[in-house]
């Protein structure tokens, strides 16, 4: 039984004429393609029998059993990886990760590479897309493989997927995303006071042009809770030398000489200043131009501040920690120290010459009197 659009009725007994499916009531050709599950043979001009028609592939025939098995195994491996690393997300992470892996298989990216590396790289991209606070070294630590080897596969996969200009690759990872999870792993519970102060230290370190590292932030805050360096290093997988270097850098800043209470008060004042200072076109009034200079140039968006649209300005504030209350850039500080050293050297040389001249004056005066 087939539907005839001409009669508007179901044709119970359609007629097959020369391979065409026709309506038995009005004669309209319903279907010009005649498919058959059984092969038929006809005789050609030489009297030989040959197969009539052509084979038509089904939709699933493009996927061989081997490829289907490869994708199934990859799905199972990535699902086990998510469960082993306690990454929650389910299909919101598995589906895009499997789509990335399918593209990698289609373009022969998996040949010559360990499948665990490609699977971990696909999952990491999916985590970054969904704002999951997990780092690449955590995947390498779970798989017990070299993080540099995994990083190389990740970069090549991003190039294959044309993600070189994507924020996943271009924009630095905000350490604020990891504070909550590492605080819970280190303390065994959620401590809102520690997390809040750690986030403020992040903003302070950004304003002071420091290399922000969440390990130091947590250590600095939980030091009052009797957590040692070794415990922080064990949780976040970083060497003690790097942690010590961040401590020394922060100690040399203005915020390093404050107590926790003084630091929180200063942070609240800066946050209040930022909220009150966020007014449209504040940068254009300072620079005298309304030209949009960010990546949205030519999109029709209005200039919000300092040649940036509102969204780019907010990203800049999050990345830099704000425009007020920070130190000068390291390059400027280095040049300033060199300039002061040169001036001090010149002053010392002049003083030395003056002292030598004064020491010879009595001798000349004595000779003159003689």
Structural class: mainly alpha
- The secondary-structure element order is EEEEEEEHHHHHHHHHHHHHHH
Strand composition percent: 5-15%
Let me know the largest β-sheet: 3 strands, antiparallel
Tell the overall outline.
Answer: elongated
Tally the helices. 15
State the CATH class of the domain at 69-170: Mainly Alpha
Output the strand order for the largest sheet: 3-4-5
Report the helical percentage. Answer: 55-70%
Mean pLDDT over the residues:
72
Terminus-to-terminus distance: 141 Å
Which runs of at least 5 residues are low in confidence (pLDDT < 50)?
Answer: 280-287, 363-370
- Multimer state: single chain
Q: Going by CATH, what is the homologous superfamily of the domain at 69-170?
A: Cyclin-like
The appropriate CATH architecture of the domain at 69-170 is: Orthogonal Bundle
Number of strands: 7
* CATH fold topology of the domain at 69-170: Cyclin A, domain 1
Q: From the alpha carbons, calculate the radius of gyration and give it in angstroms.
A: 36 Å
Protein name: Transcription factor TFIIB cyclin-like domain-containing protein
Keywords: Metal-binding, Nucleus, Transcription, Transcription regulation, Zinc, Zinc-finger
GO cellular component, one term: transcription factor TFIIIB complex
Family: Belongs to the TFIIB family.
Summary, kept brief:
The chain is mainly alpha-helical. Among the domains are: 33 residues, no CATH class; 102 residues, Cyclin A, domain 1; 89 residues; 34 residues.
């Amino acid at each position: 039984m087939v539907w005839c659009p001409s009669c508007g009725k179901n044709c119970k007994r359609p007629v097959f004429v020369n391979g065409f499916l026709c309506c038995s009531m009005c004669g309209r050709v319903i279907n010009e393609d005649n498919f058959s599950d059984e092969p038929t043979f006809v005789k050609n001009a030489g009297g030989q029998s040959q197969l009539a028609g052509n084979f038509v592939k089904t939709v699933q025939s493009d996927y061989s059993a081997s490829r289907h098995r490869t994708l199934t195994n990859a799905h199972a491996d990535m699902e086990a990886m998510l469960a082993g690393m306690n990454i929650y997300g389910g299909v919101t992470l598995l589906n895009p990760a499997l789509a990335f892996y399918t593209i990698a298989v289609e373009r022969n990216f998996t040949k010559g590479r360990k499948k665990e590396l490609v699977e971990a790289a696909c999952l990491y991209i999916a985590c970054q897309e969904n704002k999951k606070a997990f780092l690449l070294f955590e995947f390498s630590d779970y798989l017990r493989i070299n993080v540099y080897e995994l990083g190389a596969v990740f970069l090549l996969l991003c190039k294959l997927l044309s993600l070189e200009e994507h924020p996943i690759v271009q924009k630095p990872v905000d350490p604020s995303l990891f504070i909550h999870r590492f605080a819970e792993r280190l303390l065994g519970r959620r401590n809102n006071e520690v997390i809040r102060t750690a986030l403020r230290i992040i903003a302070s370190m950004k304003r002071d042009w420091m290399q922000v590292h969440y390990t130091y932030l947590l250590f600095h805050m939980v030091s009052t809770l009797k957590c040692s360096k070794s415990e922080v290093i064990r949780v976040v997988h970083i060497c003690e030398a790097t942690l010590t270097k961040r401590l020394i850098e922060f100690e040399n800043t203005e915020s390093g000489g404050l107590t926790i209470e003084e630091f929180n008060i200063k942070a609240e004042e800066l946050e209040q200043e930022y909220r009150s200072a966020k007014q449209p076109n504040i940068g254009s009034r300072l620079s005298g131009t309304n030209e949009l200079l960010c990546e949205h140039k030519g999109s029709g968006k209005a200039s919000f501040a300092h040649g940036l649209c509102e969204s780019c300005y907010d990203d800049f504030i999050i990345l830099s920690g704000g425009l007020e209350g920070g130190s000068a850039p390291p390059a400027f500080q280095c040049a300033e120290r060199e300039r002061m050293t040169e001036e001090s050297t010149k002053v010392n040389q002049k003083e030395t010459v003056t002292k030598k001249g004064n020491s010879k004056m009595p001798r000349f005066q004595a000779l003159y009197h003689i």
